[in-house]
């Protein structure tokens, strides 16, 4: 017996869904496709590289605001001078990744492996690095104002942190709260007595949010 047409197409759709769910690498392909198409949000930035293998790739000087590098393998990739504001690097591997001069404000970089990453002169304001490993990262001139790092990471970075950010004029050591328990506490983002994010900065960030259809 032949099933009615609408039932057959429903069955075909089920088979397609099941095949997609089983085929792991298809997701990486989808991400590459989405990235080439300008990203899920179709706004030219916010590109999708989730779980993608972008080792050694050149992303220098690009507009990658709010892009998704969640669980991506970014080892030795080059993001020099890129604008990555609000990007997602959750659980990403950025071993020896070059972020020199990049704008990494508001990035979510928790649980990331950032060993020996190059953050020279990068702006990392309000970025979240909880449980991330920044061992031997280059931080000369980096601005960590209001960023959230584990205390052990701050202590390790303060052993050699140096320089002043050429864009914001903020001292790296000062932004990390090095050498001052009081200043460290005051600059800790979860401390309501610490410096607050200015309203115009909040507004500027809000403007970068994608507009979802109703
Ligand atoms: C980012 O990519 C990951 C992995 O592909 C995915 O699970 C997640 O939903 C994406 N997040 C956003 C905000 O696009
Ligand atoms: C980082 O990028 C955002 C969004 O483009 C911008 O508003 C902000 O001024 C930039 N920060 C710096 C220090 O250039």
From TrEMBL:
Where would one find the signal peptide in this protein? 1-28
Q: Which InterPro entries match?
A: 5peptide_repeat, Thylakoid_lumenal_pentapeptide
The record's listing under Pfam families reads: Pentapeptide (PF00805)
Tell me which UniProt keywords the record has, alphabetically: Signal
Q: Which domain of life is it from?
A: Eukaryota
Q: Does the keyword Signal apply?
A: yes
Location of the region described as Disordered in the Swiss-Prot/TrEMBL record: 181-200
Q: Which PANTHER family match?
A: THYLAKOID LUMENAL PROTEIN TL20.3, CHLOROPLASTIC (PTHR47121:SF2)
In its UniProt entry, what is this protein called?
Thylakoid lumenal protein
């Amino acid at each position: 017996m032949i099933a009615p047409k609408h039932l057959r197409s429903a069955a075909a759709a089920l088979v397609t869904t099941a095949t997609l769910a089983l085929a792991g690498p298809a997701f990486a392909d989808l991400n590459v496709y989405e990235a080439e198409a300008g990203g899920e949000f179709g706004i030219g930035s916010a590109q999708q590289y989730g779980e993608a293998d972008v080792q050694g790739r050149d992303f220098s000087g690009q507009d990658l605001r709010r892009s998704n590098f969640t669980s991506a393998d970014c080892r030795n990739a080059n993001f020099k001078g890129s604008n990555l504001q609000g990007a997602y690097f959750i659980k990403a591997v950025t071993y020896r990744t070059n972020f020199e001069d990049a704008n990494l404000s508001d990035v979510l970089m928790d649980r990331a492996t950032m060993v020996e990453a190059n953050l020279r002169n990068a702006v990392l304001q309000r970025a979240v690095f909880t449980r991330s490993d920044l061992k031997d990262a280059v931080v000369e001139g980096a601005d960590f104002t209001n960023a959230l790092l584990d205390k052990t990471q701050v202590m390790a970075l303060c052993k050699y942190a140096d320089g002043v950010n050429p864009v914001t004029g903020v001292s790296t050591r000062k932004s990390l709260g090095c050498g001052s328990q009081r200043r460290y506490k005051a600059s800790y983002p979860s401390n309501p007595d610490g410096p607050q994010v200015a309203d115009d900065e909040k507004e500027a960030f809000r403007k970068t949010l994608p507009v979802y259809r109703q």
